[in-house]
Specification:
Structural class: alpha/beta
Radius of gyration: 17 Å
Length: 141
């Protein structure tokens, strides 16, 4: 059986510079702002934070799925996603990503193995594979 879900979000106004994003169901409704580090007001969320939130949550689900497939039961799991908006020497913007899964109750080798498996199956990882540099730094805690 196949399952599908489509998220629909509209961006309005000035986009990342004072615009808004709102999901069709109204559950996501945020003002946007350019980060202070890039000269903006930094008083609202930004697209990089939204991408980081989605990817971290998706990767965590993939990590837990990979552990269940291998019958490994971590005592705790978390994922921190860092999305960097980088301006190159050519003046063009690009993204860089670092995913930092933390797994309790497993050894370092197992943590790395599970993180690699999660990176292979996470839809966000698949969507960005070959498009942006991604570093995965697993840690057994």
């Amino acid at each position: 059986m196949s399952t599908s879900y489509t998220a629909t979000v509209e961006a309005t106004g000035e986009g990342r510079n004072g615009g808004t994003v709102r999901s069709a169901d109204g559950l996501l409704d945020h003002r946007l702002s350019i980060p202070r580090e890039l000269g903006g007001a930094g008083d609202a969320t930004n697209p990089e934070q939204l991408l980081a939130a989605g990817w971290a949550a998706c990767f965590l689900g993939a990590l837990r799925h990979a552990a269940a497939q291998r019958r490994v039961r971590p005592t705790s799991t978390s994922v921190t996603a860092e999305i960097t908006l980088h301006r190159g020497d050519d003046g063009e913007f690009s993204l860089l990503a670092t995913l930092s899964p933390r797994l309790g109750g497993v050894d370092q080798h197992t943590a790395e193995e599970l993180a690699e498996a999660a990176h292979r199956i996470c839809p966000y990882s698949k969507a960005t594979r070959g498009n942006i540099p991604v570093t995965v730094e697993a840690l057994a805690v």
